[in-house]
What does this fold into?
Amino acid sequence: MDGIDVKPGTALRAGIAALGLLGGMQSGWTETVLHVAYQEDMSTFDPDNAFALYGLDALRATYQGLIQYKPGSTELTGWLAESWSVSNDGLTYRFRLHRGVRFHDGHALTASDVLAYFRRRKSPDLALSYFLNGVADMSAPDADTFVIRLAAPDPSFLDRLASAWGPKIVGPGALVDHAGSDHAETWLNDHEDGTGPYRMTEFNRGQRYVLSRNEDYWGKRPYFDRIQIEIVPTMAQQMLMLRKGDLDLIQTGYPFEQLHHLPGGLRMLVHDDLGLEMAFVNGSRRLRDRLLRKAVLTAMNPAGWLDDAFFGFATPAHSLYPRAMLGAPAPVEFPSDLAAARQIVAHVAPVSLEIAYEDQESAVQQHPAELLASALEQIGIHATVRPYPSDQVPLFADDLEHAPDLFIAENYPDAAHPSTQAGVFFARTAPLNYFAYKNAQIDQLIDAAALVNDPADRDRRYLDISKRLFADMAFVPLADIRGVIVYREGLTDLDTRPALPWVVDYESIRRE
Amino acid sequence: MPMFIAKRLISLVGIMIALTFIIFVLQQIIPADPARATVGMNAPRTSVEAKRKELGLDQPLPLRYGRYLSRLLKGDLGVSTRTHRPVAVDLLHFLPASAELMLAAFAVGITLALAVAVPHAAGQTGSAIATGIIAASSAPIFLVGQVFALLLWFWLGWFPGGGRLGPDTPAPEGPTGLFVLDGLLEGHLSTSIDALHHLALPTLTLALPVAAALGRALTSSMTDVLRQTYIRTARAKGLGEFAVVRHHVLRNAAPVPLAMVGLQFQQMFMNILIVEGLFSWPGVGSYLVKAFAAADLPAILGVSLAFAGFYLVLAAVIDVLQAVLDPRIEAR
It folds into this structure.
């Protein structure tokens, strides 16, 4: 019998050529299509349920809220509301709507539509309904005016409206025609009816999303005909696609160590965001000892390891608030007497600590965690580094004795107001107070600061809270990490906003 | 034979019920909070508690298991806490991509296995294909996939590096969800060819371990069969070598590699978790990885159950096929 003799040359090449010619070897690159990628799929396209970071850019391109942050700042400006006013008692917010705005189904925007939407948003079944906690009443006195009345003054309320996860108006085409029995949740999972510059024209979960320009858009006409979003889970592949021209930009996750040696044809935009690298200290285990905590703090001083961890794309933190949120004058001062720290450790030796981070954040957190462990070794502490599944991290507080000693993370608050940082991390009932830190005095200070309207007074109070927390060594501010977008040469006007993580404004971006 | 099949079916149902229990208990043991996963990390604790009640997570375990089983009987796998859609709907959306990839990988794997085994059994050792397949399959699958992607996509540009279709090819809306087939059914040949083009690299990556394992088993099995006296008799009767292999060798050598098909399916399911990620393939593997990351228990349970069910059915079919090929199995 003859052996099988496959000659890889002719047949293989012919097959590939045929596939290539018939299947279209050309990538779908055209000048007016913007190609971007997500490492993770978006969970839902419902603006009232979508709390994940991936998808925020697409949501923002299709839906709009009443107010927003200005590009590159945390200053508020109108969006669907052309102006707004707040009553003297801080309870009533009156929004004047833009005229001539149409939803993607053609329906003209009125205050009644905004009211119907906000009523939906308040439904406790929806994940992001908590943004409207404290709203007592809403009304639409005329077609252009929408009014919200709060139960108690809340100076952060406007920031909550402008948040990346804040309310974005859904049209009656969805809320009425597709209401079903679940506030249109089912329909809005993969459809949209917004007012934004783009419409979602293809929603292929797990694979591809296509935004097409809304030709009836009420604002400035965006440059790109289409925004094509592919799901590409590995960063290595995204980087190759960017180099090959199959992608136009990578919004987040490009490895810091490679940013100083970008291949030709690629550019980067370094911008401020609200990502703050912080360490949470478990004061119920080994670090119950205050002196030992001080020694650990001495070794943790980020000035010693920050550049090695973030390659120049992070600066020592100035407080427990990101600098784009609250500008403290100088970096936090860590104790610096390493000899004294060694003595303290020697006195209570042996000391072993566990440093934890979320496994999904390994690309960013593993290196800093290892550098921290190495810094602790220098004062005689044996530190181990361990990634935890992200669903286990919120459970640390349930079993502090078996939780890690330190947890490091880059966190994003809901909005640019400092109360969203203090309320999420530092208060006794804060959802991300991982090690259940309790301090009644701090809680009182947080409650009092949340009512202050004057920005200077407010910031002074929040900085005071930060200093007290640091002095108590419950939370350790480490670094302001900068956002970096890597893009292909030729793209311009990449507007970003510090309070909108990983979001490039598709309304402004264009190709030269 | 009907009795044999009936026994297999009864044991299959029993195993499935036991499996639902094991998977359910395992998910209860794993420290995770589906309520927190549903409302997001920054949501206040009051929202988490409200969601916990809504999801019935405050109910006793036996009650939750009972409800889970009763819903299961109606085909309701629950609602994914990540995608906010019924898990059954998600499965129907993601399963075809995985099925297409696995079918293609099995077809290529079996073809390559035959290409390894038949010449080897015929005395031609050390063929280039066999050496290549064994060398490639001895490396970790993520490395093999990355090498294919770098070489055949990034450098040579012969194949696409990811996804099921090119950016300008609309997804077919055909009945099966298998893009190659649906393209043909809709009369869009270019869609089918584009889909085949995108299938190439993940298929090859996934097929190599199958080819190596089945190739080795088939080679060994065929070598044994070729030594049997009835093969000598067949040759002595004047049968050609092709007829001997086709009618006598392959049929008698088949039961061992056939038994391995089930194991290979199991291995392939583990491998698609990696391969789908490497090639941005929107299948059940990618869905499951994301479900684990988000503590999406209904999705994890649903996918596990679906794959376990499929595996058990496949195992039963293989048992029956083996019994057909070798009646001694049924007699035992």
Summary: Residues 272 and 482 of chain A are 5 Å apart (CA to CA).
